[in-house]
Write a structure and sequence with these properties.
Layout (H helix, E strand, L loop, with lengths): L3 E4 L5 E5 L10 E3 L9 H7 L4 E6 L4 E5 L5 H18 L22 H21 L2 E9 L2 E8 L7 H16 L5 E5 L1
Length: 186
């Protein structure tokens, strides 16, 4: 098994491409080891000292390291953990634990606007950020403000504010006049 690695805009995060399907659909974000109970793959990676977060996508695994850990020491261990997992035949997520569907539900008077926001996110934004090892999902819409949740390499990325303000906010404002601003949520 040959696992490729790619850098991301977030220097604390690397993207690992095992050459196999990781999740059939959706994404799964494990910001802490305590969140990884349903994922044998994430648990195996969190067993490595210095791992700060794991994010699973369709065909990639994004790993975020603790600030004080150099990638030179972590990368070989993460590669080994991913390889061991795929050789074991275990699923990335056990049982009925669903992969993240992505967007939060929204109903009410702004439902049509939210449908447009989600459509633009799904067709224009999410594919681009997935290439960088992350995901951005809709969290809410209130009085012209779109709230987005950043995951994987996008969470804590130094360029995430620029991505939100200059990229996503401009895109949404261009197509949807009711959008005034875009803000991240934790």
């Amino acid at each position: 098994m040959f696992i490729q690695t790619e850098t991301t805009p977030n220097p604390a995060t690397l993207k690992f491409l095992p050459g196999e399907t990781v999740l059939g659909s959706g994404t799964a974000d494990f910001p802490t080891a305590g969140d990884a109970a349903a994922s044998p793959l994430a648990r195996r990676i969190f067993a490595i000292e210095g791992v700060g977060g794991v994010f699973l996508g369709r065909d990639f695994v994004t790993v975020t390291k603790a600030d004080d850990q150099p990638w030179d020491h972590l990368k070989p261990s993460v590669l080994g953990a991913i390889m061991e997992h795929f050789q074991s035949g275990a699923p990335a997520i056990e049982g009925d634990a669903p992969a993240g569907a992505g967007h939060a539900d929204h109903s009410g008077p702004d439902a049509e606007i939210v449908v447009q926001i989600k459509e633009l996110l799904d067709t224009r934004v999410r594919p681009a950020v997935a290439q960088d090892g992350g995901d951005i999902t809709f969290h809410g819409f209130d009085r012209g403000v779109v709230y987005l949740h950043m995951q994987g390499a996008c969470a804590g990325c130094p360029s995430s504010t620029l991505t939100l303000k200059m990229g996503i906010e401009n895109l949404l404002r261009h197509y949807i006049p009711e959008v005034i601003e875009v803000r991240p949520v934790a």
